[in-house]
């Protein structure tokens, strides 16, 4: 569906190639993995999402398209999606600390530890999830206040909130 050395996708081949259960969730996956309004995860290209088993996370993906989702539902769904992406426990802060410790103590470590390869902190996961929800809702025709979903208005410009805690 993606021609070699090209950035143009054949959408009909693409839709035929992906898991049928994901066809209605493409917007959410696109926003979640990073698009023009949400950040991408380091070393987690969006095309890899298409080969992952999302069957157990369909309800989490649906949260981002439901306009009445609560902030707690958005946060919980986002954390579970990130944990699946990193193949780790949903307790992201503990998982991040554990992986960092393992890498620090590794006898084969020859170079600096790359923090960007660790799962997000819980705070960063929540903010990312809020921005994904906002993007999907905008695309669905449900405009929301960006300042309620991970953005800060400074001097007339929206900036992503980097951290709350």
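^ Assign residues to that structure.
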């Amino acid at each position: 569906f993606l021609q070699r050395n090209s950035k143009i996708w054949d959408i009909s081949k693409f839709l035929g190639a992906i898991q049928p259960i994901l066809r209605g969730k493409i917007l959410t996956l696109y926003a979640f993995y990073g698009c023009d309004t949400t950040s991408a995860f380091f070393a987690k290209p969006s095309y890899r999402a298409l080969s992952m088993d999302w069957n157990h996370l369909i309800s989490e993906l649906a949260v981002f398209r439901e306009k009445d989702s609560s902030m707690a539902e958005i946060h919980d769904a986002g954390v579970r999606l990130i944990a699946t992406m990193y193949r780790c426990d949903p307790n992201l802060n503990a998982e991040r600390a554990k992986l960092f410790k393992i890498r620090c103590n590794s006898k084969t470590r020859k170079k600096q530890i790359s923090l960007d390869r660790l799962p997000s902190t819980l705070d960063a996961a929540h903010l990312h999830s809020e921005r994904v929800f906002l993007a999907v809702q905008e695309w669905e025709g449900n405009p929301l206040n960006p300042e309620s979903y991970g953005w800060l208005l400074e001097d007339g410009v929206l900036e992503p909130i980097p951290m709350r805690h």
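The mean pLDDT is 81.
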